[in-house]
Amino acid sequence: MNSFWGNRYDTFKDRRYAALFLIALGALALLPILLPVMGLYVLARGWSAFCLARANRRNKLRYSPLSRDELHKARSKLVGN
What we know:
The protein is mostly helical. 85% of the residues lie in helices and 0% in strands.
């Protein structure tokens, strides 16, 4: 005695496996193209992050910090105006 759901599964199982096979075949065909492109993208992003970090490190202490006297005078000018 076959149930309704058992018949439905038997009807669609071959179609589902065929779709899965075609998707896997397409992924395997695109893999040699996609991997180098993704690798170049990752390398480019890493290089740009490295250059940005170096630039930020170089410009971090461009201006020397103010002394206490300079800070006091600057604050008094801001409060006085």
